[in-house]
Every structure is written in structure tokens, then in C-alpha cells.
Design goal:
The longest helix is centred in the C-terminal third of the chain and has 40 residues. The chain starts with 20 loop residues before the first helix and ends with a helix. It is globular and about 60 Å long. Helix content is 66%, strand content 0%. With 247 residues, the protein is an all-alpha fold.
Length: 247
């Protein structure tokens, strides 16, 4: 069975003040550049309307809608994937990236704090936050790969006729959503303390590599979390309720 999304996928031409921020990214991944430029959270904050997001950010709504309408991209391939296939895509794309990148960034944070920490005392917190982010993500990715995503595969392979030790899929999904929020707080603090990931003039190549790596990780995590928070998880919960009845 090929599932449809819980909400219609908008296009650039159909944007309205009531369009959900997350739906904008699902319709056109290039919109992330506009949202990032305006400081609008589209992953953990993807269930807000554009009107709400503009108000919270102190932006002119018409100007925001105009900027988003000008992106002109098409919906990405992953936007139309069924839940089991989307889960596989997330593991193969975003989890694989993080497993490779996290050790490198953590090692850079240790090195840069050791070498430059005396002149830049904020690097002690950068190192601490990077360690916390890597630790949180390590456990989070493992739980998704070993528990939640295999359960999603099993659920759809058996048309919902399966009993899980944790009950409904909605239960571990709620835990994952909470962990996404925690990662978002760490990322926001890292961006703040690093001055938007801009290395100082006296920074060495490793210093620049660290900040560039953190910025890239933030960008990838925002899209990663968007795919889960605003597409995969709501769709799984919706279909689970349809097949098993609302709890």
C-alpha cells in the first residue's frame, strides 16, 4: 500500500499565510535557504504557519511569502516516499553522514580548544556542547536504527498486524521528538556562542574546519529532523490510527 501524506504538499504558487513551514520545505527543498536566512526553524518548528513564523521572527509576512515564492524548485524525490522507504532514505543519507562526521568534528573541537582556548575561552563551551551533541545523537541514531525504524518496516510489511513491546509506534516517536528538541537547543547555543560559526581572524585551519563542520552538521540536521518531524512521524501516526483506531 502506498500511503499519502497527512496534509497536501504545497507548491511555491500556492503559498498562503496559513501554509505550514514544514510543508514549504517538503514542496521545495531550496526554500531552506530562505528560511535559514530569516532565522526560521523549519524542523522542530515546522508545524507553525508562515504567519506565525513571521510574527515570531518579527518579519514582514508579504516579504517572506515573496521570497519563498521566488525559490521556484520542485518537490524533492524523498517527499513522495512511503514511510518505510523514507525511513531507509533517512538512515542511508543523514545517519550515514552523521556516523562519519561526528568523530571528526568532536576531534576538531578537542584540538581547537586545547590550542586556542587560552585566547578564546568560549571554546571550552564549544567543546562541551559538541561533546553533548555527539553523545545525544549517538544514542538517538542507535535507537532509531535498532528499534523505531525496524518497527516501522515491520508494521507496514504486516499491514499493522503486529504487537510491539512498547505498544503503539506513537510511543517511541514521542521520545524521538523530545530528543530532537534537545538537539535543537544545543545547536542554537552553538550558533550563538560561535557568532554564526565564523572563525576569528587569528584562527588556524583547524579552527575554520571546526566551525565549517558544525555549520554543515547543523544544516544537515535541520533537514534530517524536518523529514522525521514533519513527514515521516506524522504520517506513521496517522496511518497507525487509521488501521488500529485512535488511542
Amino acid at each position: 500500500m502506498t500511503a499519502t501524506h497527512a496534509t497536501p504538499t504545497p507548491t511555491a504558487l500556492s503559498l498562503t499565510p496559513e501554509t505550514l513551514v514544514g510543508d514549504v520545505v517538503t514542496a521545495d527543498v531550496h526554500a531552506t535557504r530562505v528560511l535559514d536566512r530569516h532565522g526560521i526553524d523549519y524542523c522542530c518548528g515546522g508545524r507553525r504557519t508562515l504567519r506565525e513564523a513571521a510574527q515570531e521572527a518579527g518579519l514582514d509576512l508579504d516579504a517572506l511569502l515573496s521570497d519563498l515564492a521566488g525559490t521556484g524548485g520542485a518537490a524533492p524525490d524523498w517527499a513522495a516516499l512511503a514511510p518505510a522507504a523514507l525511513a531507509r532514505h533517512i538512515v542511508e543519507t543523514h545517519h550515514a553522514y552523521l556516523w562519519e562526521e561526528m568523530p571528526r568534528v568532536q576531534a576538531l573541537a578537542e584540538k581547537v580548544a586545547r590550542v586556542h582556548g587560552e585566547r578564546h575561552p568560549e571554546l571550552a563551551e564549544v567543546r562541551k556542547l559538541t561533546q553533548a551533541l555527539v553523545a545525544d545523537l549517538t544514542g538517538h541514531l542507535a535507537k532509531e536504527e535498532r528499534i523505531l525504524f525496524p518497527a516501522i518496516q515491520t508494521f507496514f510489511a504486516n499491514d499493522g498486524r503486529v504487537d510491539f513491546p512498547f505498544g503503539r509506534l506513537a510511543n517511541p516517536i514521542r521520545a524521538m521528538l523530545a530528543e530532537h528538541d534537545e538537539a535543537g537547543v544545543i545547536l542554537a547555543r552553538l550558533r550563538e556562542i560561535t557568532g554564526d560559526f565564523v572563525a576569528p581572524a587569528d584562527g588556524c585551519g583547524s579552527y575554520s574546519a571546526l566551525y565549517a563542520g558544525l555549520a554543515e552538521m547543523e544544516t544537515d540536521l535541520h533537514l534530517h529532523i524536518h523529514k522525521e518531524n514533519n513527514i515521516l512521524f506524522p504520517l506513521v501516526i496517522q496511518i497507525e490510527e487509521q488501521r488500529l483506531g485512535a488511542a
